[in-house]
Amino acid sequence: MMSPCLSTGVEVLAEERQEHTRTGREQPASVAEVVLFDPDADRGIRIRDSLGGAFRVCRAKTLDDVARHCHAGSPSLILLSLGVAAGPDGGRVDAPVLDFLRTFGRHLPILVYADTSHLPISVYCQPLAAGARQVLNEGSPAFLDELTETMSRLVEDARAHAREQQQLGTLFSSHYGLFGCSAGMEDVYRRAIKAAHFSDLPVLLLGETGTGKQRVAEAIHALDPRRKDKPLVTINCSALSKTLAESELFGHSRGAFSGAANERKGLFRAANGGTLMLDEIGELDAELQPKLLRVLQERRLLPVGEDYEHPVDVRIIAATHRSLETMVAEGKFREDLYQRLNVFRIHLPPLRARREDIGVQARHFLAHYQEGQAGPALEFGPRVLEALCALPWEGNTRQLENFVREALAQKGSGGGTSLEMEDLPRWVFERLAQAPPDVPVAAPAHPEVDFLLERACSDRLSFSQAIEDYERRLLERVLKLTGGNRTHAATRLGLTPRTIFAKIKKYQLE
Questions:
Q1: Is 369 left (phi over 0), alpha (psi -120 to 50) or beta?
Q2: I need a surface site. Which of 130, 237, 250, 433 has the fewest CB within 10 A?
């Protein structure tokens, strides 16, 4: 019988999805809302009418109207006509459509259509690279039938995805202490489950200090059907003594060196059959890197002072907060070792990039540190949660946990059933008092930042040109949000009025 931990991961998710799929066929699901944007009104009406009662279709006049629907969180699917502008290199998808796909394609299923019969492959791939789920050929005789079928599949996949997201969040919070419902954490959960079912797959965990890399490693090991009953051994590479590191990892024989009074198995053999987590792998001494590489390649090790190698069967999970690519380029980390470790990557996003998880984690820590205490359970006041979401949390989850403990200690046995602003540590007020009005201390990463590199590469722009392109777009957006009020726009961006006036003039936004 499988364990209750999601039956070791994937199986229960698959069974739940199949069950919901069967149920969906027997009992029709609620009608999905679809937002359709097509500058050709006649074609848009024809497509809307062809969908019949299978979908509730809302036609939008502009992409801005579609964006408003997306921000409201109502549509199940977005349907876009793919405008293609002619050009010397064979054409390009209209820039506003690509910008929209980059912004919303990660969060909503977006289906695009065009007459793709004669499109160059580079143009065909542009919307897919930007975030579209599929590109349909409007010129095909079976276009409308294919459109209906594809939309039905995407909507059902999105519903199944939402159910699985809830199950994943419950699994990882209840069993592995990872709390968060954001898209970034959902991706971590899914990749952890995928990694767990390939027992020999090396995993590289990337993320800032305090993001939960140790917890993810524990989850991967516990969900691994072959290794879960074997040891999980963790070593922090920055704590390895340079003189004893080889012995720590690979072991030594009795008398191998001065002070070696007894034989030592070493961490690799201690983890045999299970998992070895090499935390802070970027701190590994350069002299030890080729020896580790050989063990990973050959799956055999030679203890210090012995003449014969020992076979080892260990899954390696490496973790680091540093950029190993940069270290390789600087000659501080072996490229062949990096390639051996960099097989399956899982990136843990910082807390400031997933602010919707701050309240979830804070409430968990608040409940956890009140367990067993007398008196009524405390909750956060509304302004406190607002304050938490405005802080940058450079130390991520670990810093947030320490904050909750400090706030509870400061509150002590005072009256009230909630933690209010006056109960918070003084440093919170000092940090927030320095922030410009209406501007978070550390704003979450904007989706458009991700396409700066794409712009620089695909449009052959220099880095400075790509930065200027983004700066112009950001100014346009903020000016629109502030109704053209330059002073308010300057305040929101943390700029002086003189600076923003100069930039408006530079980009001819007057």
A1: alpha
A2: 433
Q: Are 178 and 189 in contact (CB under 8 A)?
A: yes
At 282, phi and psi to the nearest 5? -65, -15
Nearest alpha-carbon partner for 296 in 317, 265, 282: 317
Token pair recorded at residue 242: 């340079």
pTM: 0.61
Question: Going by C-beta distance under 8 Å and a sequence separation of 6 or more, which residues neighbour residue 458?
Answer: 126
| Both structure tokens of 313 | 């069967």
DSSP state of 39: S
DSSP state letter for 351: G
CA–CA dist 100, 64 (Å, integer): 9
All residue ranges of the chain with pLDDT < 50 are 1-29, 86-88, 438-460
Of 135, 190, 128, nearest to 165 by C-alpha is 190
Burial of 341 (0-12, 13-18, 19+ CB in 10 A): buried
Query: How far is the C-alpha of 113 from the C-alpha of 354, rounded, in Å?
Result: 32
Distances (CA, A) of 314 to 122, 288, 296, 345: 43, 18, 9, 18
SS3 (DSSP) at 204: strand
**Calpha distance 190→165 (Å, rounded):** 9
In one-letter notation, the amino acid at residue 118 is H
Q: Rounded to 10 degrees, what is the CA torsion of 356, 357, 363, 367?
A: 160
Strands 32-37 and 77-81: parallel
Given a contact cutoff of 8 angstroms between Cβ atoms, the answer to whether 448 and 475 are in contact is: no
In 3D space, the residue among 66, 85, 82 whose CA is nearest the CA of residue 135 turns out to be 82
What is the pLDDT, as a whole number, of residue 401? 93
Residue pair 37/94 in contact (Cβ under 8 Å)? The answer is no
- What is the DSSP annotation of 250-290? H-B-TTSSTT--S-B--HHHHTTTSEEEEETGGGS-TTTHH
Q: Rounded to whole angstroms, how far apart are CA atoms 249 and 270?
A: 9
Which long-range contacts (C-beta less than 8 Å, at least 24 apart) are formed by 327-331? 327/282
Q: Residue 494 is encoded by which pair of tokens? A: 């943390």
